[in-house]
Design a protein that fits this description.
Length: 477
C-alpha cells in the first residue's frame, strides 16, 4: 500500500506541474497567437488504425484515430463520463412516448439497455444540437461503455456519383454526430454494436458516408456506410491491422463469410444499378462500388502507415487501393501506433512530392486517441484510452482507464473560446507557440507513462485479487 501511495503521489505531482506550466504559458501568450490557431478551410479528415489481438504487444484489441478538422471556428475537446440514464421521461425531456430524440433530430425507440460510458465530446455541440441529451453529447467521437464495447467514429468519406443517385442520403439520419451516443448506452458486444448500427442505417437511412471502428476485448470490426441505406462491416483478423483515411476501404471480401456483415440486398443493389462491372460475391469491392478511389490526399496516408508497420512489403505510392488487412512485421505496440499517428513523409519517396500535402501527423488534429481493450485485466479495467488533446505533434498521450468518472476541471469545461482553465487550449496554444514542445517537454513524460503502464496493470491485477474496489478506485484517479 505504501508503494501504491508513493506512485500515486508522484504521478499526480508530475502531471499537475506540467499542466500548471501549460496553463500559465497559454494564458500569457494567447493574445499573440490566437489568430494563428484557427484554420482557414472547411473540411473534415481523419486517419485511423485498428488491430487484432495477435498483431499487438501486449495482445490487446486496438482502435486508434486522429480526429482532424479544418474549420474556421476550432473545436474544443473535453472528457465526459455518462452514467446510465434509465430512460425516465421525467428526467430527460428528449424522451417521450417511448421515443428518444437525438441531437440531429432523429427519433428512435428508447434502448432497452442502459449502460454507462466514457466519451470525448466536441464543445461545439451546444451550438449545433437541435436537442440535448444529457450534457454536451453531440459529436462524442470515441468512448467505452461498461460492457467494454469501444467505438471511434468517424472517418468522413465521399460517395461516387452513381451511388449518390442510386441511394440518396437522408436529411435526418445516422451521422457522425450521434453514432457513439446512440450505440454506447446499449451495445453489449462489438458484434452487437455492428448489428445495431446496421439496423439503424437500413431503417432510418444515413446522412453521410463514413467509417467507424468498433471493438471489445475479444474482437474488432470496421464498419463502412456507403450510401443512404447500404453498409458493410468486416471483422479484423486476429493477426492483422487495417488503416483508414478518408476514402472507402473495404474490398476483396466474401459477402457470405461470417466475418463480413452487410445490408440486406447489397449485392443485388450493386448489380441492379451497375455500380460494379461483373461483381463477385466472394471478392466484393464495396469501396469501388460506392466510393471515390485513388485520391492522393487519402491513399498517401494509407501507403505511409503500411510502410511504417509492414516495411517488408514493397508498395508503390498512389495505387488506387491498398491491401485491406496486413500483418505487421513486428507486433505493434501502443508506442508504434503513436509514431504512426504523428508520421509525415520525411525520408520516404513522397518527401519532395508537391502533391503529398496531407501527412498523418497534422497540425489541425483536434484530438487523438488510442483505445486498448485487454481481456487479461479485471473486467472493469479492461479498457484504456491513450488520449492526446489537440494535435499529438504537440501533446502527450495520457492513459485513462475507462472507469474514470470524476473528471478534473481542466478537462471537463466546455466552450470554443480560449480559457486559461482549459487543458485543451493549454496544449493547443503551447504547440502554436513552439512546435518543438513535444520533444522538449512532453516526450519524456509520455515515455514514463508507457514504461509505467505494464507495471501499473500488474499492480492493479494484484490489488483486484484482494480488494477489487480499491483497484477500481485507484484506476479512476
Amino acid at each position: 500500500m505504501k508503494l501504491l501511495l508513493e506512485y500515486r503521489h508522484n504521478l499526480k505531482s508530475q502531471t499537475m506541474r506540467h499542466i500548471a506550466n501549460s496553463y500559465f504559458v497559454a494564458h500569457l501568450f494567447f493574445a499573440v497567437i490566437a489568430g494563428l490557431i484557427l484554420p482557414d478551410k472547411d473540411a473534415n479528415a481523419c486517419t485511423s488504425v485498428i488491430a487484432g489481438k495477435q498483431a499487438t504487444d501486449p495482445e490487446v484489441i486496438l482502435l486508434a484515430r486522429n480526429e482532424d478538422l479544418e474549420i474556421k471556428q476550432s473545436k474544443y475537446m473535453m472528457f465526459r463520463h455518462h452514467p446510465a440514464y434509465h430512460g425516465d421521461e421525467k428526467d430527460n425531456p428528449t424522451i417521450k412516448d417511448g421515443m428518444w430524440t437525438l441531437g440531429n433530430g432523429l427519433k428512435v425507440p428508447v434502448p432497452k439497455n442502459e449502460f454507462s460510458y466514457s466519451a470525448m465530446p466536441d464543445a461545439r455541440g451546444y451550438e449545433e444540437a437541435t436537442y440535448g441529451v444529457r450534457e454536451l453529447f453531440y459529436f462524442e467521437e470515441r468512448g467505452i461503455n461498461e460492457r467494454n464495447v469501444a467505438i471511434s467514429a468517424t472517418n468522413s468519406m465521399d460517395m461516387n456519383e452513381k451511388a449518390k443517385t442510386a441511394d440518396k442520403v437522408v436529411a435526418v439520419g445516422i451521422a457522425e454526430e450521434i453514432i457513439p451516443t446512440l450505440l454506447l448506452p446499449q451495445a453489449e458486444t462489438a458484434l452487437h454494436a455492428v448489428e445495431l448500427l446496421g439496423g439503424y442505417v437500413e431503417k432510418y437511412g444515413a446522412s453521410e458516408a463514413n467509417g467507424m471502428l468498433i471493438g471489445d476485448p475479444t474482437e474488432a470490426w470496421y464498419f463502412e456506410i456507403g450510401s443512404g441505406h447500404h453498409w458493410i462491416a468486416v471483422k479484423t483478423p486476429a493477426d492483422s491491422y487495417l488503416v483508414v483515411a478518408n476514402d472507402m476501404r473495404v474490398h476483396g471480401v466474401n459477402l457470405d463469410s461470417p466475418d463480413v456483415k452487410h445490408s440486406e440486398g447489397l449485392f443485388a443493389f450493386v448489380e441492379q444499378h451497375g455500380l460494379l462491372e461483373n461483381p463477385v460475391r466472394c471478392s466484393f469491392n464495396f469501396a469501388k462500388a460506392f466510393g471515390v478511389l485513388g485520391e492522393p490526399y487519402n491513399v498517401d496516408r494509407i501507403w505511409l502507415a503500411q510502410k511504417l508497420l509492414t516495411p517488408s512489403k514493397m508498395q508503390e505510392p498512389r495505387q488506387l487501393q491498398y491491401p485491406l488487412f496486413l500483418t505487421p512485421d513486428e507486433k505493434m505496440s501502443v508506442q508504434d501506433v503513436m509514431q504512426v499517428l504523428r508520421a509525415d513523409y520525411k525520408g520516404t519517396e513522397l518527401e519532395d512530392d508537391p502533391d503529398a500535402t496531407r501527412p498523418i501527423g497534422y497540425v489541425k488534429t483536434m484530438e487523438s486517441h488510442i483505445i486498448t481493450l485487454n481481456d487479461e485485466m479485471p473486467n472493469e479495467l479492461q479498457g484504456v484510452i491513450w488520449q492526446a488533446l489537440g494535435t499529438p505533434l504537440g501533446s502527450p498521450y495520457m492513459p485513462l482507464y475507462s472507469v474514470m468518472d470524476d473528471i478534473p476541471l481542466g478537462y471537463a469545461v466546455g466552450g470554443n473560446q480560449y480559457s486559461p482553465f482549459s487543458a485543451y487550449w493549454a496544449f493547443r496554444s503551447l504547440y502554436v507557440l513552439d512546435a518543438s514542445i513535444y520533444d522538449e517537454l512532453w516526450k519524456e513524460y509520455e515515455d514514463r507513462r508507457l514504461d509505467e503502464h505494464k507495471y501499473l496493470n500488474n499492480m492493479l491485477k494484484e490489488i483486484d485479487q484482494s480488494t477489487p474496489s480499491t483497484a477500481i478506485d485507484f484506476a479512476k484517479k
